[in-house]
Design a protein that fits this description.
Chain A: Keywords: Sigma factor, Transcription, Transcription regulation. The complex is a heterodimer. By secondary structure, chain A is an all-alpha fold. Helices cover 65% and strands 0% of the residues of chain A. Chain B contains seven helices and six strands; from the N terminus they run H-H-H-H-H-H-E-E-E-E-E-E-H. The chains are: A mainly alpha, B alpha+beta. At the A-B interface, helix 1, helix 2, helix 5, helix 6 and helix 8 of A face helix 1, helix 3 and helix 4 of B.
């Protein structure tokens, strides 16, 4: 009998929650509440289903519920921007670049952020991600397209430090 | 980009970055990119951003609390319990079925179906049995494929927990194979018979408990008569007349009660 590995999904759930809430403490609350709700509604898990996608969907739903009930707080979250804890001891250039990318990502609208996170970070298929978020496949794909376009734009407008240093030879004229 | 009609869209490029394409489509996208350096540069930059995001968001979870892990454990245990419960429910349903079979046996005499019952959809193992039988027919023509005609029903039962029916005296065993399947070992016996020709008898674990009376599933040239007693299903596969196969299956089934 294969065991359900829920503890092993905690990393995934925390990452997703952090991308949604943009705050470590809120993310932890969200994951905890999602696990409590999952426990209450464990009957809704389809046998043979993907436990990770099921849990990510619960995290997503609780987050959306909270957004709706706490509009004013959502504005605060919107302003708070960056997640506090720093990660990855990388070289100076890299960590600057990484925090810019993360900042750009976290400033995306929630719907684009969640779509891109599930696919690019958690490696879900478009179909699975669409089910987690509860939108049609086409909607998910257009959100990902818009998220990428926005990131590209930010990169082009990013401060000098993040710009590529190579120039095309002969571009000077 | 130029105005020529191009089947590779922006959505394809996103799907490429997200690793959502099959290899054939990847090759098409890569051919498209190879001819368009500026699009390729954009895709490379998207790939870079994706990888950087993975690193940037992978950081440690400073605020992780033991209560969350405990909630995860509780859910894990509950779901494991739920599964055990489902198995028990299935076993209970099976017990009801067996009881019903017993009762039917008592009322209608030994379960003996004489007419051919056309079932709506034969179980999946029937198809496997037919396929395996075809392989046996191929093996028959290959002298290099050694056969193992030794047949010891007790040994099979000891090794696989499958009770084999007693075979009629005029059935000559050609080959016995034990092979793995999803729900435990299964057995195939190839038999030479007088009235049915070369026949394969399968004992398979279909993965669920059931009692099925001998039923015929005819297909093009090869027919199958199958029945199930408890956890083991039996299938008799051969070229012979479907009615005769059914008859043989019925006789075999009787030896198991």
């Amino acid at each position: 009998m294969a065991r359900f590995d829920i503890v092993g999904q905690l990393g995934s759930l925390r990452r997703y929650a952090r991308s949604l809430t943009r705050d470590s403490a809120d993310a932890e609350d969200l994951v905890h509440d999602a696990l409590v709700r999952a426990y209450e509604r464990r009957g809704t898990f389809r046998p043979g289903g993907n436990p990770r996608a099921w849990l990510l969907a619960i995290v997503h739903n609780i987050f959306i519920d909270r957004m709706r009930s706490r509009r004013s707080e959502a504005a605060r979250i919107e302003q708070a921007g960056l997640v506090a804890d720093q990660s990855m001891p990388a070289s100076q250039d890299h960590s600057v670049r990484l925090s810019q990318v993360r900042e750009a990502f976290l400033s995306l609208p929630e719907e684009q952020r969640s779509a891109l996170h599930l696919v690019a970070i958690e490696g879900l298929s478009y179909q699975q991600a669409a089910e987690v978020i509860g939108v049609p496949l086409g909607t998910l794909m257009s959100r990902i397209g818009r998220a990428r376009a926005a990131l590209r734009e930010m990169e082009e407008g990013a401060p000098l430090k993040a710009r590529p240093r190579l120039r095309i030879v002969g571009d000077d004229q | 980009m130029t105005a020529i009609v191009d089947p590779v869209t922006d959505a394809d490029l996103d799907a490429y970055v997200d690793d959502q394409l099959d290899v054939a489509r990847r090759i098409e996208v890569e051919a498209h990119l190879a001819a368009r350096p500026e699009v390729a540069a954009r895709v490379m930059s998207d790939l870079r951003t994706r990888d950087e995001l993975r690193v940037a968001l992978a950081g440690p979870f400073g605020m992780a609390r033991p209560a969350t892990t405990e909630a995860a454990r509780r859910l894990e245990r509950a779901m494991a319990r739920g599964r055990t419960l489902a198995v028990l429910q299935r076993a209970a349903a099976a017990a009801v079925l067996v009881a019903a079979g017993w009762l039917a046996n008592g009322i209608f005499g030994p379960i003996a179906v004489t007419k051919v019952v056309a079932s709506t959809q034969p179980p999946a193992y029937v198809e496997d049995a037919v396929r395996a039988h075809r392989t046996t027919l191929v093996r028959e023509t290959m002298p290099s494929q050694r056969e193992a005609p030794g047949y010891d029903a007790d040994e099979i039962r000891a090794a696989t927990a499958i009770v084999m029916p007693s075979l009629p005296d005029d059935w000559k065993i050609r080959d016995v194979q034990v092979y793995p399947s999803q729900f435990g070992p299964s057995v195939e016996v190839a038999v030479e018979t007088r009235d049915l020709g070369l026949v394969s008898l399968f004992a398979i674990r279909p993965g669920r408990f059931d009692v099925v009376k001998p039923t015929v599933a005819p297909s093009d040239d090869i027919s199958t008569a199958y029945f199930q007693i408890g956890e083991v299903a039996y299938a008799v596969v051969g070229r012979g007349d479907a009615g005769n196969l059914d008859h043989a299956a019925e006789k075999l089934a009787r030896t198991l009660y």
